[in-house]
Amino acid sequence: MKTGLTYTSTLAVESRHLAVQVGSGDLEVLATPIMLTLMENAAMLAVKDVLEESMTTVGGYISSSHLRPTAPGRTVTATAILTAIDGRKLTFKVTAQDETGIIGEGEHLRFIVDRKKFMARIKE
Hints:
The chain is an alpha+beta fold.
């Protein structure tokens, strides 16, 4: 694995993605938690193909601005770029945009874990 790996995830904003629907606000605009989910998805997929099949990544931290609203019917893309590797800890620069430009940007940390061991700890 090396820095520079990138992935872009895309979302067509529907009513189920709106702040009023997910409970993060009372307006009919893209909910911040949905934007963050799209950013996490892009980071996960940026490194998925270089991990052993028994391994995956889990989110540990995300910090992002949400700069402007996105209306239903618009398309949002989130791009993650792997910027640092420290053992099992991966750091990503994440950005989200719609047709009007950047709507959010920040940093996301993910950790490489063994799928079976991780799930076994939950069952204990």
